[in-house]
Amino acid sequence: MLDVIILNASLPDGRSPIDIGILDGRIVAVERALVADAHEVIDAAGQLVSPPFVDPHFHMDSTLSYGQPRVNQSGTLLEGIALWGELKPLLTQDAIIERAMAYCDWAVAKGLLAIRSHVDVCDPRLLAVEALLEVKRRVAPYLDLQLVAFPQDGVLRAPGALENLTRALDMGVEVVGGIPHFERTMADGAESVRILCELAAERGLRVDMHCDESDDPLSRHIETLAQHTHRLGLHGRVAGSHLTSMHSMDNYYVSKLIPLIREAGVAAIANPLINITLQGRHDTYPKRRGMTRVPELLAGGVPVAFGHDCVMDPWYALGSGDMLEVASMGLHVAQMTGQAAMRQCYSAVTDTAASILGLEGYGIAPGCRADLVMLQAADPVDALRLRATRLMVMRAGRVIARTPPATASLSLPERPQTVDWRLRGNQAG
Questions:
Q1: CATH architecture, range 53-357
Q2: Is there a catalytic annotation at residue 213?
Q3: Under which EC number(s) is this enzyme classified (predicted)?
Q4: What is the pTM of this model?
């Protein structure tokens, strides 16, 4: 007797109709016409059933703080950093926890069940670290929260930042972060990468650095990150986030850089909503898009994931925790409108992101944890096109969120009474 059977599901890889059997919080069967009894039977009726969404780059310590202590009038990165500096002395643990817990509620409702959040360690009180460790504990039954020790003001530039970062790791933060392009000099930036990678290697930890979040084509800390990754044997445990300077680099240099990144096993994390908002601000026209070279990185064998980065904080006044919005923006900006490319964008907020975080038991296969999202869509491309409603969200075989289907009624002569946005129309072939 199984706990749950999901019937007639369409899977992201194109298989349909498929039945999914669940027992003790794990998937035990994925097959056509599953013959078994279950305490609960859910008919997907051909809807897309997917592993949950994963956000590989976020800032939960600042989320939902928009307007505190004032609004970012220019909307720029530097004013956002200045605003965060003004807000930090006013922070309390209770306020951080309350905002982060509210955002986790949003995330669950959107089928987002794993988040890697950078947490600022430049405040010697480490209030945000303590707060997010408490949030991590509270949400553990339904959401995987992975924390990055992030020296927002520069690990060498800010007094005591390296000591604070080390203390945060001792407290239980599990990923080493950095921001080399914000150090005072290029040389200091390179030195910060070396120090932080060696620290991660000593402790057996992963690395995720804000890297080259700049329009400057000479900001090349990703090269240094790849080199130290290779030197220290950190292959598969390191990610470079943002990498926006790559959109301004000359093609010859990039043709050498991408193979270096691939050989080192470094992953790339783009943040489409924020990258295109904050970068290219000094351009008139032609105006740069701002996001890193996603198609070229993918073609070069580098794993690429998409992060949300910010939601209603000093840097970004918008957002709702919807990773389909993130993937859709990435798709458009990178001009990835081919069928295979659109599916890569879906993977960038699901399985590729899960791999970068090192999530265990992720996916739809026997033995995987029964974390699933049912979407009001036929397939991943449909889900992106529609920003599809999350009809059901399941964690370890238990339904934890439901949303009614998106419907509309029409009162038009000789026309249907309802609208079905899933209709794909006539398709060649």
A1: Alpha-Beta Barrel (3.20)
A2: yes
A3: 3.5.4.1
A4: 0.96
